[in-house]
Amino acid sequence: MLEIKKSAVALEPEEVMELERIITDQDREAAFAFLKKSIYQKISRSQGDRLQSHLDSGGNPVERYRSPRS
Prior knowledge:
By secondary structure, this protein is mainly α. It has helices at 13-25, 28-47.
């Protein structure tokens, strides 16, 4: 899952031409494929290993919330 924040994506000239073709042709399937390939993948790579799921922390998360017995 991506971190929700502002991101800038640089497109290669070939990608700009592809985007222009998609818009001109109103090609929905190509638009979705372009978003996945050119936009989503670039943002995903830029965020790298900085994101970590709460499930990856290891251990038993329930143990942190149990009160000590007296």
